[in-house]
Amino acid sequence: MERNWAGNLTYRATRLETPTSIDELRQLVAETPRIRALGSRHSFSDVADTPAVLVSLAELPGTVTVDGDRVTVPAATSYGDLAATLHTHGRALPNLASLPHISVAGGVATGTHGSGDRNGCLATSVAALDVVGADGRLTRISRDDPEFAGSVVALGALGVVVSVVLDTVPAFDLRQTVYPRVPWRAVLAGFDELMAAGHSVSLFTDWAGENLRQIWVKSTGEPPADLFGVAPATTALHMIPGESTDAVTAQLGVPGPWLDRLPHFRLDHKPSSGDELQSEYLLPRDRAPEALRRLRALAGRIAPVLHVTEIRSVAADDLWLSGAHGRETIAVHFTWRNLPAQVAALLPAVEAALLTLDARPHWGKVFATGDLAGRYPRWSEFRALRRDRDPDGRFTNPFLTRLGLV
User: Fold this and answer.
1) Number of domains comprising the chain
2) Residue 39 pLDDT > 90
3) Which PROSITE patterns match (predicted)?
């Protein structure tokens, strides 16, 4: 059967369907007791998995359609392909994730994000969703719908999204500048100043030693001349030692189009290490300094299992199951070596450090905790919405059941 991108998950589905029309998809949903939509297979968790029927939307008809400041996007479209089309129309998205390879619908459904104090997760650009519901009907859910905020980051629990309408902004240029070996002491003392140093800021560390590995600043204007006295790198760098810099987007402060700077990785190259697992935890911003101190204390356990950690900021939003719901957020992302047993053994210690600081795990990454209800103020309302939209549990799966959303 199908496997996910990392190869750590083999999908349990009895079959994979690939409809070639919306009508075919509608009939399939209406006639199938249990069904889940499968995106670009970039989730490390079993959020999209099912022991029943998986449906791929890759063969559905449709094109990216730009209309003024909005764009309608077929669900299976990658953010990289969407960005290329938008740019030809002089439009842009305000932010992108580090990987442009992920599908729009999948990124939206799992609350995937980029970085930046003023940038919400990717789902905050959604103006409407076209969804095939449990009865097979195609419905548009727009921002003026009272249940919209519960319908966007929805984990595939409310139906099969076939297209997404996104708000756009005018196209813009960015510079990407990398600062190596910035001292931890300076970072912790000037954390808020640092995270506001550009349109998007990413801190990379292995937690060992007195310096971070790198800090990447993506700026619409001139980048900082230095960060706490550390000058920019004069050659391109990959955040993971030993990986080719051919895979990363242009650095050295050279200005260029938004779509060639906002992601960390080029669409036509292997992203990250390619042989990895990932976890991520999203914390209230004011708890981040304590979280970083606690994780540094675990460096001796974390570093041997880790490729790299990335630390980013995400603006607050009102989407019910978003990791940034209701609070300014700092996200701590772990790119692990592909060592499933060792990662599984380490996660309880990482979560013991972070969950007491009100961390929320990323839905599409590997995490151990199942105690999430109290971390989302609208949790019970989402459960009620799911039961109302899907009373027979057509879109339920073990992931939703395990978390108590069924």
Assistant:
1) 3
2) no
3) FAD_PCMH
